[in-house]
Amino acid sequence: MLLNITIGREWAFWTALIMTLILVIVLSFTKKSKEGNRDKLIQTLIRNSDTIYMMCEHDRRSLIYITQNVFEVLGLKEIQGTRSETDIITEIFQVPVVQNELRSWNGNSEYITQMFSYHNPLYQHTRWLKIKIYPFWEKDVQYDVILVSDVTQEHDRQHLLVTQTKDIKAREQQLNQITSISYDMEMNIDLLSGEMEYRKLKEDAIYLGNHQTGKFETVFPEMIHHYVIEEDREKVLNIFSYEHLKEITEGEDLEPVSVRYRVQKNEDMIWLESTAFFIVSQGETKVTILTKNVTEDAEYMRRQNTMLQNALKEAEKANASKSEFLAVMSHEIRTPMNAIIGLSESALEEKLSTVVREDLENINSASNNLLEIIDGILDISKVEKGVLELQEKEYNVAKLLKDVINVGKERVGKKKIRIETEIDENIPVTVLGDSSKLRQILNNLMDNAVKFTDLGTVTLKATGVKKNSNVVLKISIEDTGMGMSEEKLDEIIAQSNTSNTGLSIVKKLIELLKGELEVESVEETGTTFTVTITQKVIDDRPIGNLEIHKTRTKKVNPFSIPNKKVLIVDDNKLNLKVASRLLEPYQVKVETVMSGQACLNLIEKNQKYDLILLDQMMPEMDGIETLKKLKENSKFKTPVIALTADAIVGKKEEYLASGFNDYLPKPIDSNELHRILKKYLQK
């Protein structure tokens, strides 16, 4: 049976629409004679859009064009007139996370995208925005088309579970609806004539007096002022005012409305709940207000609320402890991983025999696979919020496929299974995408294939079809295992939609990658899973024969900076060795110390450095505290990079907010180190 799970077509449609709008904007500036008509067309198209479109000259950052929906998209219509569109856009580009992204952008990639929170001091609400920048050139001049979208609703959905947990009033209302089975008093109101009649339904229900009739606007306020305690009178009169009741009956929503309040009886405080029910029929509009004694319910809910609040505090306390534990575990685990990965990568740069190189490649590959597993376990924000994010970067396709094959060979063990491959040698060698999630998908499918195959083969097939600047990768994992019937396959697919099984995780990851999954299975014959995703081509040279492809060649071309001096601060000798080894190709002068205080002592002695790599988790004085003391010296201007194994999601933003110039997580990635050295030392 063939199951096609197609993901991302709607995304492609909206992308096409956005690019069409961008083209219209560009044309409107290249054909000045038609500028007025095109501007009207654009404004018509984006009038109800939730995206702001701008164009500016890249070098001078001068604003050329901006749509007139800035205040509507940002929810700032109330302050329109006090500030200009240019002021608002300038304010957005001053957000630190946007500035940092722009500084690291090479200006040549297809687009830059970043999501961040935005709060205008003249407006009470905070919004979440996403900014995208598309470059284009005209007559050797670079322009930027900038899109700013309101993604507050998408962000709010991620926090819906927390909001529901804290919504104590919603729980109270639900409980009241279930337990409201009897009432003590009744008041009938004719909204056309304004007449009312109040009577007791139970003999001892004298909380609001005895039987009364008359004009509702006169009698009801007198009853409330006479019986209801002063603190609660206003809310009762507002909810059950004659104007409010009429307003409700004139609308389509005739749901009951309720209010709780207190009356004093002798020395006791009595809680009452009154609920208004609406009847509109044959030209008559009537309201019935039923009231009951809910003192016991109120006391019960008070105790429940106290218990829930205490439980919430305990949960938050436990969550804080867990976060602290995970941060420590992340550091403790990633520190030795930094040494394994860093030293193996450094060794692979040397001239090695084929056997030694293959062993080192396997060590490095296994280390990276283990690191990705660790990241998946330790990423608390993803585990608790169910939030998955793309982490796109350049990766070597051959290395990815070889890693998956090696994982399969390790899983085979003593089984009589052969791992075979059919790889298209024309697949581009380097592409842009989230290799971590693709590797997780393929490893999961490879594990599954080996698990359910006792004899025969597990075959990895891969092809690549180029489309403009992209390549469509189709990767299949085919086994000769037990297979399954059509009914069984349907059952497994159905379970994957409601559970957290391996296939469910695969489907979620493929959906995030905007790809497709096909499943074909024949009972007693085998099963084939096929993943299809589109990646951007970075280096279109073919990978060639995978068996002889060397995936561990030099990743970067180091530049020589012998006149530059770098200080490395880390309490772990092995980490100092790894960092120093990775800096050797740049011929930079390196000095190392093992504490924050030692770093401060060097600076106080007027030692000069061009860059400082500062570890965060150190005894006695951590990295943040060390940085704070460094900046107390007004003459200190050296860029300081956070060098840390604390790589949980969100930490980068925290370190940048603490004053670090940049962030370099452990294990140290040679490409990231190259970027930082080029940015801060290559002048």
Roughly what percent helix? 40-55%
Q: What global shape is seen? A: extended
Based on helices, strands and strand pairing, what is the structural class?
Answer: alpha+beta
How many whole angstroms does the radius of gyration measure? 33 Å
| Oligomeric assembly | single chain
What are the low-pLDDT stretches, counting only 5+ consecutive residues below 50? 1-13, 175-180
Major sheet details:
8 strands, mixed
**Number of DSSP helices?**
23
Mean pLDDT reading = 79
Q: Whole-Å distance between the termini?
A: 60 Å
The fraction of residues in strands falls at 25-35%
Beta-strand segment tally? 24
Characteristics:
24 strands, 683 residues, alpha+beta, 27% strand, six-stranded antiparallel sheet, disordered N terminus
Detailed description of the structure:
By secondary structure, the protein is an alpha+beta fold. The protein is 44% helix and 27% strand. The strands form 4 sheets. Strands 1, 13, 14, 15, 16, 17, 18 and 19 form an 8-stranded mixed beta sheet that branches. Strands 9-8-7-12-11-10 form a 6-stranded antiparallel beta sheet, sandwiched between helices. Strand 16 and strand 17 form a beta hairpin. Residues 1-13 and 175-180 have low confidence and may be disordered.
How would the blueprint of this fold be written?
Blueprint: E1 3-6, H1 9-30, H2 35-46, E2 51-57, E3 62-66, H3 70-73, H4 85-93, H5 96-104, E4 112-119, E5 126-138, E6 141-150, H6 152-158, H7 160-166, H8 168-179, E7 185-190, E8 195-200, E9 212-215, H9 216-227, H10 230-239, H11 242-250, E10 257-265, E11 268-281, E12 284-293, H12 295-348, H13 354-378, H14 380-385, E13 393-396, H15 397-412, E14 416-423, E15 428-433, H16 435-451, E16 455-467, E17 470-479, H17 486-496, H18 502-512, E18 516-522, E19 526-542, E20 565-569, H19 573-583, E21 589-593, H20 596-604, E22 611-615, H21 623-630, E23 640-644, H22 651-657, E24 662-665, H23 670-680
